[in-house]
Predict the structure.
Amino acid sequence: MSLVELHDVVKRFGDNTVLDRVSLAVEPGDIVAIIGRSGSGKSTMLRCINGLEPIQHGRIVFDGETVNDPATNLRKLRQRVGIVFQSYNLFPHLSVEKNITLAPRVVKGMEHDAARELAAHALARVGLADKIDAYPDQLSGGQQQRVAIARSLAMQPQLMLFDEITSALDPELTGEVLKVLEQVAKEGMTMMLVTHEIGFARRVATRLIFMHRGRIWEEGSAGDVLAKPRTPELATFLDAVLH
Amino acid sequence: MIREFSIIDVYYLLLAARWTLALTGLAFLGGGLVGLLIAVLRVSPTAPLRALGAGYINVVQGIPLLAWLFVFFFGLPILAGVRVSPWIAAMVAFSIYAGAFLGDIWRGCLQAIPRQQWEAGASLGLSFAAQLRYVIVPQAVRVAIPPTVGFLVQLIKNTSLAAVIGFVELTREGQLTNSTTYRPFTVYIVVAAIYFAMCFPLTRWSRRLEGTLRVAR
């Protein structure tokens, strides 16, 4: 059984159709990179998968549970689907430790000491063990984003969604975040990432999806899709981002 | 019988100011509880609850405080057959009134926190209540303190309206003093000075908070 399935998903904002009959299956261990222009529906697709955005038609299934069924407990589901945002969205009033331990403590009822240990472990994975007592505004953008990744990982999700997580960072900081992503990928995490880092997608992704006008326009292994675009839309897009 | 206005009268006015402060405190407490509920209703994910909160604010803010005081003091005995003391009537009316204004102020403060903060909380599996309690409210409190203190100053001054239902606070005591001394100018200057002495420090404090909280984390 696939970990994530999208069947004929339609998402509209008013009259604007953002996802137009999208179908997709993601297997455990897949690393799916999603590329495409702004407004092609990439981010919206990720946000629909953890139920942040309601859909108007179709079905989204995560690990056998229908995300868009009103009877589904989204809170339970979101504990198993991590998401990292472009703008980090750390809690500015909480230390790094509390940012990471808030959900494990409140949602899973974890004890203080165990939670701190969990935070330390998650921070070590993103190379920030020494920042456990810092506040978000004392960290660089790249460090904040790594804390956001650690915060998601600490919930031990089965799937991680990354929504253009390096788009707000300058190139130097992008590198340190991508390195962390690559590490998480190596550990076998199932990942879906919306990205503009084509080189990274080629190196790390097991599958690549090109979205255009709310549809999956092309998909396949990253190497193939990038080397031999079958549609002029993808060829134009690659031309624009690679040069 | 007319007597001289003396330092004793100032003393009595100061004693009456205690009741002004007591009524303010109770109204702030009651209004704070109502306001908290209303603010949370206003940001609830459930549309009918939001409408309920908005309806409360509209109704209460659309009716003068004086009318609320009359409704509870004169209306309840007629409608429900219960006599209420000026204390109870004033407390209830002021709580209802303060609840609407504080609810509206605090709604604005909750909404001032970026939507992404709610999303980040929701994405980690936090419930609406947990998002509010651990993520949104701690950030909103900083925003809320200056306008809340500002409203408190309004509340102190508005408690003078309770004089019309016979609640003896600073203004009512001033009226009583005036009726025996016939020195309205002196009496009301003293009354005004006492109000000022209560309000001005709060205004200053609120200004200071505005300055320091803007740069706080």
About this structure: The interface with chain B takes residues 50, 52, 74-76, 78-79, 81-83, 85, 87, 89-93, 102-103, 106-107, 135, 137, 151-152, 155 of chain A (CB under 8 Å). Residues 92-156 of chain A form one domain.
